[in-house]
Amino acid sequence: MREALPQLRVAVVIERQHQPNVWEDWRFVIADVVPDTGLFGDAPRVLRDDGKTAQTLYPGFDVTLFHDEGEGYYLNLTSGAPVWFVMWRVDDEHPSRAWPEQVTLSYNEAGRLLDAQERVDNLPLGADEREWLQAWTDANYRPEVKQRKRPASFRAPGQR
Fold first, then answer.
1. Can you tell which superkingdom this protein's organism belongs to (predicted)?
2. Averaged confidence pLDDT in the chain
3. Are 104 and 110 in contact (CB under 8 A)?
4. What's 128's DSSP letter?
């Protein structure tokens, strides 16, 4: 029987601003990542909308810790300010709409998404989630010991 992978369920809050300046019709900001205890339901819901600024909650994102992403979790934790990474998209046909697609805690996974030209923003990780990630990373990942390589000029010609 396979071991179940640790998982958190979260919801993402996106803030939409209408005409924040003369150059933009719409601006989107990832406003928050909160635990999803199941009380939010399955569908997005508008938390507030005053015509200028709206906040919408998108529930149901599973953040699963995978063994092959251990280095990415370690890099996030040792960055000095661990974060949630949220990949999100804007509707090309209706630029007033945006939604989150994925939430991760892996620095490496976020880097791959950015390399693929995706939008990825980050938000500070809460203390409880940081402790959870730290405990898992301590138990499941060991960084490779860096070994100093001698410059080629100091090696014998046959070893270069």
1. Bacteria
2. 91
3. yes
4. H
